[in-house]
Each structure stands twice: as structure tokens, then as C-alpha cells.
């Protein structure tokens, strides 16, 4: 690996490691925060889905911005993230809370477009190691979440849910400063959105990409997979806090364990991508992740299983099956998008399946929360539904 690539990649990964310690602190907090202020599961879903609105509508313009210059997108986006998480911590009611979460989605959309672009640029310098480079990012993010989640649970128990959002605000500010030291990987960088708009926009159109079956199937796969992430945000922490010993701390510990499973799944996924290809890896992990989620209600409901294994252990095993699978899946989906993306429009093209998946957050948390609120639905039914959606997305990919 060239020294310049290794240095830039190391700084990028360290920055994201710091950021995701903060992200891990809030993952078990979001639904519990809603419960504290009296929101139902369905209303909690609205709060959780709010960032998806900005993610969806800003995806294309953010990708075009990042294709002109990676660093400005990363820095401006991270600044908005920090401000939005601070707003979440200080929000006195539902309306400002939703506004703050919309701001978070906008910041994420801009920053992540730049991050995906610079990672693609660095991976392009060592194409034979593309899978392992992407897996290293997945492992770093997983480790950050693993460290942050139990800390978040402890912060919630000690200071309340709002305090965890102050943690991620600080982490975002640290990441912003570190991003300033990264090299710009696109020549003729722009400094802000107005500069990008004044430059020629010779970038690919999403409508052109969607004419190709490969991009359609990749987008549908992302849609199915994102139901699982919606369940992770809206349902799994609530179930875990009721099932696991320790309440919020127990839920945080499970999220931490799920993060640590990424240290196993990520490298496995990277090796599978480099050896067997991205699509094959996506199919394998799509099946195992779907089965993991679909097994949750059975783990919680099948009579007499708790005489052999505690219910919480079976539930945890199902969650960890899903988390390990999606950790292995992430390098493959990114690798396939990078392989298909037209040169010079990498960030714009890669934003298409991401936007399709993020669009799921507009309705999936609300839908899953509604299923959870049904009187006749067994506990964990919403997780079964999420896993089924993931399997359907995998079937579409197989048929492509």
C-alpha cells in the first residue's frame, strides 16, 4: 500500500472511530428518549425517521457537491451534524426535536457523500485490496459503536437520555477538526455549495443509472436491508431494555456486542469480496441477516425454550446473527457500488442506492412501531417483518 494512501486512510479511519464512539452512545438512547417524553412507539418512529427526509432529498445534490471536492462536503456536513445533535439534546418538545433530527439528516447526507467519495478514491489506488480496505472501515465503525454503546447506557442511567447527545456533539466536533488535515483527492476543489453550482455539472443522472438492471437491483437490495437498521433503532433497544438484565445498561451492552460482532463480520466480508466478488457476498449475508431478524419473535415466544436457554440469550443470539451478517454485508454493497460507478461521478452514483435505502426511514420506523403497538402481534413481530423485507431484497439481487 502506498504511504500516502496508508497515511490518509489511517487519519480517515481514526476520525470516524472517534465519531462513532459518540454515535454508539446514542443508538440505545433514541427510542428511550422518546419514551421519557411520553411518545408512543409510532410517534417514536416519526422522530427516528425525520433524518431520512433530508437524506433523501439532499442525496443527489450532496453527491454532486462531493464529486467536485471531498473535504468541504465532509467538513460542512460534520459541522451541521454537531449543531443538530446539540439541538436534539436541548429540544424542549416534539417539534424542535423533529427539526433537529432533520438537521442531522442534512449534515449526514453532505458529510457521508464526501466520506464515501474519499474512501472510493483511496481504494482505487489499491483495487486488489478494495474489499479489505472497506472492511477496515467497517471494523473501525463497529469498534467505535462497541465502545460508545455501554458508555451511552451508563450516561443515560446517570444523567438522562439528553446527555448522550452531548457526547456525540463533542465527537462530531473532534472529527471535524481531524477532517481538516485530510488531503483533497479531487483536483480543483470547491469551497462551498455555491462554487459547485457555478462549475459545470457533467455528472451522471440517476435516471440514467436506473435504466440499468444492476443499479435497480442494488437499490432494491438497500431498501430491504434498511428495514433491519430501522428495527435496530426503533425496536431492538426497547425489547432489549425489557428483556435483558440491567435495563438501559443491558440494552447498551447488547448494542456494544453487536458492534463488536462487526470486528468479525467486517473482515470476513472484505475477504469474501476480494475472493468471491461483491454480489456473492451480498447474497450470502442478505440471507443470514434476514434469518437473524426473523428468528427474534420465535426466540421470545416459543414455549419451554427458556428451560434450556434463557429468553434473553436467545434474543441476543438472534440480534448478533443479524449484526454480524450486516457487518460482512457492508463492504460488499459499497464495493459493488464503487465498481459500477462511472468515473468522475462516484459520489453521485453511490448516493443513489444509499438514498433509496435512506428513504425507508421515512416510513419504516413508523410502520414497525405500528406493528409493535398492535395488541394481537407477538413481541418482536416487527423484527420478523424487517427480516422478511431484507430477504425479498436479496431475492431481487439473485434474479438480476
What does this entry look like structurally?
The chain is built from 18 helices and no strands. The chain is an all-alpha fold and 400 residues long. The protein has helices spanning 3-26, 30-36, 41-68, 70-90, 94-124, 130-159, 161-179, 193-198, 206-209, 213-234, 236-243, 248-276, 278-294, 296-301, 311-340, 346-358, 364-373, 381-399. The two termini are 34 Å apart. The model is unreliable at 189-194 and 196-201 (pLDDT under 50). Helix 17 packs across helix 18. The radius of gyration is 20 Å and the shape is globular. It is 81% helix and 0% strand.
What does the secondary structure layout of this molecule look like, with pairings?
Blueprint (H helix, E strand, L loop, with lengths): L2 H24 L3 H7 L4 H28 L1 H21 L3 H31 L5 H30 L1 H19 L13 H6 L7 H4 L3 H22 L1 H8 L4 H29 L1 H17 L1 H6 L9 H30 L5 H13 L5 H10 L7 H19 L1
Q: How far apart are the first and last residues' alpha carbons, in Å?
A: 34 Å
Order of helices and strands: HHHHHHHHHHHHHHHHHH
Question: Mind telling me the C-alpha Rg?
Answer: 20 Å
Strand composition percent: under 5%
Helix content: over 70%
Shape: globular
Number of E-state strands: 0
Label the structural class. mainly alpha
Number of helices: 18
Largest sheet: none
- What is the mean predicted local confidence, pLDDT? 84
Low-confidence stretches: 189-194, 196-201
